[in-house]
Automatic annotation (TrEMBL):
Lineage, opening ranks: Bacteria, Pseudomonadati, Pseudomonadota, Alphaproteobacteria, Rhodobacterales
Keyword Signal: yes
Keyword check for Signal: yes
Entries under InterPro entries matching the protein: DUF6636
The entry's keywords: Signal
Organism: Salipiger thiooxidans
Name under which the protein is recorded: CVNH domain-containing protein
Highest taxon of the lineage: Bacteria
Extent of the signal sequence: 1-19
Amino acid sequence: MLRSIALLAGLASAAPASADVDYFDTPSGNINCSVGIDRDMSDVICTIFERTPTLPRPGNCRSSGHTVSMTNRGPVTVECDRPGTSYARPSGPGPQVLQYGERWDIGGILCVSSRKGLECRNESGHGFFLSRAKQVVY
């Protein structure tokens, strides 16, 4: 089980805070996610660095996005690439890694890491799958 789940559970029940945020990377370092937990809502925001350009083009964007987000209820949002932001892949994963086969299950959001990619779902059944070869939003 992911080492940080106990930490997140402790943070979620800690003294009043507007939101608690934690981060994880996939083992390849190609996907970075932040998870925010608040009293009434949680969210996950994931950025994929190297990918085929299959994420849908959000709104009036000129290019497809690298970042998806969702709350514990409701649909996934694909964010516009931000001008001037580098989406170059980091040299490796950060200090907190969701290893292949591990799950991040907190605040109505479940993320599962596998050798095929990262899949996250919310309580409403919406979610996304991210890998270099394929990106799906549902």
